[in-house]
Amino acid sequence: MLIGRVMGTVVATRKHERLVGSKIQIVQPLEPQKEKSMGEPIVAVDAVGAGVGERVLVVRGSGARQAVDNDQCPVDATIVGIIDHIDIEEGS
């Protein structure tokens, strides 16, 4: 699972039949402590209705397919949560 920020929405009028009705977002992975960009943006199916600018939780691989309740869906990443707050305690 990773933390990211929704950067934008992908609009595809033609797509795989199992993706019809799915909202597709571009997500920039973030470092949890500093919220700095980490790596390249990814494309993810949105299972929770996240909006641009929101911090989200993303699962990848087989977990992404399970999150959309379809093991046959061609999905590599799925947004499964919208983050309200992150609390990280620094080591003593």
Number of helices: 1
Task: Give the topology string: H per helix, E per strand.
Answer: EEEEHE
pLDDT averaged residue by residue:
88
The biggest beta sheet reads: 5 strands, mixed, barrel
* Count of DSSP strands: 5
CATH class: Mainly Beta
Q: Which stretches are low in confidence, meaning pLDDT under 50 for 5 or more residues running?
A: none
Q: Give the termini distance in whole angstroms.
A: 26 Å
Strand order of the largest sheet: 1-2-3-5-4
In CATH terms, the superfamily is: EutN/Ccml
Coarse morphology = globular
CATH topology: OB fold (Dihydrolipoamide Acetyltransferase, E2P)
Question: What is the helix fraction of residues, given as a range?
Answer: under 10%
Radius of gyration: 14 Å
Q: How many structural domains are formed by the residues?
A: 1
Structural class: mainly beta
CATH architecture: Beta Barrel
> How much of the polypeptide forms β-strand, as a percent range?
35-45%
Can you give a write-up of this model?
The chain is mainly β. The protein has a single domain, classed as Beta Barrel (OB fold (Dihydrolipoamide Acetyltransferase, E2P)), CATH 2.40.50. The chain contains 1 helix and 5 strands, in the order E-E-E-E-H-E. It is globular. The mean pLDDT is 88.
